[in-house]
Give the backbone structure.
Amino acid sequence: MTECVKTECPVCGPASRTPVGECHDLPIVRCNVCSLMFVGECSTVDETEEFFRTEHVDAEETTQLHYVSYRSDSLQREAAVVQRLVPDGGRLLDVGTASGYFLKEFQNAAGWDVEGVEPSAVSTNFARDHFGLNVHRGYLSEQDYVAESFDVVTSLDAFNCHRTPNEDLAEIFRVLKPGGIFALEVPGQNYRMLTGSGLLCQLLFGVPLRLNAGVNFYFYTTASLVVMASRVGFEAVESHPEAMPSHGSLPARFLKGAYFHATSLLYRMTSGACHYAPKEFLIFRRPATAATQETSEDTTSSPPNKYAPLRKVA
Ligand SMILES: [Zn+2]
């Protein structure tokens, strides 16, 4: 029988929360301090991790469709951003590698040595077999990487599935070299609520909330991620709007494309302040010189009023 555990806001710790609704029989709550939405109670971390190892991706065809065919445009754009920021190449780790399509973009680029970590057995085998990639099956916390090993760490549409986000951010910071880049793609929260809640969601899908809870655990905003990343020592560098997976009929894909281009324009005109794009690609840097850092324990146990103010990404 599945054991349920209460979760905490990753920004504010054990702050009070307000119920928002239910999705996939899981309670969705909103933090009363920072307004971040998250799954308020769910299976244990071990059970969740086992789900992603064995059940979440059940077939090679699923990996091909969801992590190659529907995602290739976004992954190519994101690879280009990383290659622009780190023009001489280096050692890159992709956390949550999925199909490996993103890493494949670096295979023929000079100077890059890339590898991945991926919990799913099906996806790990796909990335190894189709692209010949070096992918370690499992979680970042299980890899025992030497400190300051990588020039770039990426997490593309995966961080919202992590159950221990603050600990994982601290580990990503630890394995990055000083001056290294952390590139993070997450769903856009305004877009998610626009399409996954309210009357439109009820009419189209027959449910009041459609957030894929149980796969997603935290519904991050840009501000919450900037706070969490800055606490472990990262500085925000730049951000980009990104598209939703491209699939469906031709008219549906046309509408999705039009929506992405319109919201991208709005995003760029407002420097990210007006963010209704389907996804966001955030770039953080580990400062080249040592800065004072809080430990991950301090991060989760500190009272909310100690937290840094929200910082806007340029
Ligand atoms: Zn909070």
Q: What stands out?
A: Residues 64-289+297-306 form a domain with the Rossmann fold fold (CATH 3.40.50.150). The chain has one domain: 64-289+297-306. The longest strand covers residues 176-187.
